What we know:
The relative contact order is 0.14. This protein has one domain: NADP-dependent oxidoreductase domain (TIM Barrel, Alpha-Beta Barrel), CATH 3.20.20. It contains eleven helices and ten strands. The protein is globular, with a radius of gyration of 18 Å. The protein has helices at 25-38, 52-62, 82-96, 113-125, 139-147, 167-175, 197-206, 210-219, 232-239, 248-255, 270-278, and strands at residues 3-5, 11-13, 15-18, 42-44, 70-75, 101-106, 129-135, 155-159, 179-183, 224-227. The chain is of the alpha/beta class. The strands form two sheets. Strands 3-4-5-6-7-8-9-10 form an eight-stranded parallel beta barrel, surrounded by six helices.
Amino acid sequence: xxxxxxxxxxxxxxLGFGTYQITExxxxxxxxxxxxxxxxxxxxxxxxxxxxxxxxxxxxxSGVPRxxxxxxxxxxxxxxxxxxxxxSFERSLHRLGLEYVDLLLIHQPFNDVYGAWxxxxxxxxxxxxxxxxxxxxxxxxxxxxxxxxxxVPQVNQIEINPFQQQSKxxxxxxxxxxxxxxxxxxxEGKNDIFKNPILIKIAKKYNKSVAQVIxxxxxxxxxxxxxxxxxxxxxxxxxxxxxxxxxxxxxxxxATLNEGESQFFSHADPEMIRWMASRKLGV
Length: 283
């Protein structure tokens, strides 16, 4: 598995297995176990996914040594404060059954981000977290956090897919030393992405699937990428992307698909911010 090096020297597998919306405990546990069996060594969860305990069980049952795995979780909005991070992180560790996580992210750019970041810096120094970062932060907020704190975020996990390519934002993050990580690389199937004529044409050219073409497109940009499936055959397929390369013509064709806006919602929408503030999970 190809890895990329974060700004603190920690290496992260470029392909990760996402667990968003796998909420049924037995299904989540099995999915993580099967993903690790397929070859994934990078597993991503979050407090708000409500599956940390099941993910932890899947990790424990995999039989793979802990040091060979890269585990990410995220702090939900209600816990984004100094005290909130300290207390909720310990609960996350307990649910995961781990002594440390490899990457901890602030899940959304709301609440007391600065207090939360200070707590995360301290937890990193204490060896409880190998890398710290953010998720869904606009570039200006990411740079603001980086410039006024001791530790520059190692990662910003954001939406990146053929319809929301974020090329300028990716360049700006990398110039700050922040590694972009893509969630929803398949746009959760929106806009009939798997039936897109341009992507199908490229896929047929290499005898690959549309999903494999999208993942390859991201990996060639050195973007950490998360994909999710509960089907073992798809897990294996999504990992089999290191035996072909896209041409400049392929990349230019994919560039024409960019719509330049989220396929889901805007983090600048006041109603969405109010909804996140009201979503109390008690985690």
